[in-house]
Please model this.
Amino acid sequence: MSIVLLAKQPILDCNQTVYGYELLYRSETATEKWNGDLATVEVMINAFLNIGIDQLAGSNPVFINFTENLIINDLASHFSSSDIVIELLEDIPLTTELKTKIKSLSDRGYRLALDDVTPQLFWEWHEADMIKYLRYIKIDFLSIPDIRDRKKIASVIRSIYPQIVLLAEKVETIEEFNEARYLGFHLFQGYFYMKPQVMKAFEVPSYYLTYVQLIQQIDQKDCDLTNIAKTIQNDLSLSYQLLKLINSPTYQRSERINSIERAVVLLGQEEIKRWLYLLALRETLQHERTEGVDMLVKSSYYRAKMCEYLAQQKVPQLEQEAFLLGYFSQLSAILRQPLDRLMGSLSLDVQIESALKGEPSLLTDIYQLAVSYEQVNWIKIDQLTEKLDLKRAEVYQAYRQANAWTFELLG
Model:
């Protein structure tokens, strides 16, 4: 299990009403070597999957830094133009290839912002005829300490490019805010209002082999979504993030999910592919992998298969529900979040939710029998085996098969 850290800083309008947020990478390791590509990918995964963009920003736009490499590799194409504002970092060189990419992004409706603009940077972009592709220009108040220089650059931009939204960033005091508003800036960001607010969540561990298998499958023209679903189902992290995704406000759906396969079919190949690409890119960029497998994750895999095997004997029509019941039973402990909150974000089938809450049902008895075997509670094992009218040998065989399946997947 890894801790997900993400900071957001409000961007305000002239009335100090929140206009949007800049999302910033944060790490618990102060000495971590900086990797701008990985930082942006982490921000996007954490914002859209682990924490939830609606929880972070509501309907407000989010500004996210993009490096030269991520622009060249067209990472933005995996998001709708309405999802993000692309902040072009000030050190991006205006090569021919990059100019073409920026023009393409603008033509496709993506909103572009140039970050940390100084007079020198503005004139460089102006002479390259690239300002016309921008929606926002962010003027760095800390790097332009003289008010006369700030006034001059703001005046020049307003006169040559009246369509540009001027954003004053690193505004440290209320006096600087009032000055920026007087100079004709439209938006404001800085410590005068609020330091970046760090959001914290916990992420389910994932395993690189799953991404390799999925990438091989998803790019095929005759892609079999059933096989995709089976591969995803073998990875607790991907399964959790898939259900988080499909239950996000973007899809505005009310249907309850009773299987990973159903979630995959509802999203479709292209949507699965875009999120898989982002997750796989993060895996590629990470230099150090966490070794070992958390016991809670192993427990989730065991419970899922044990419940599935028991359901095959008693209620085969609920086999998929039984699998998800065991699969997500440890999420509350893994993510350190209340069960009710997690269920609200996943919209699981009602029967699964009821069993997770411990409400009386056949699925609940199956789940409790799986847990009893895990905890070696022989009294409860005997009681539930008799209640479910199962043979001891059948239950023991299910237990052995579930453990063998878990060991085969995770070692």
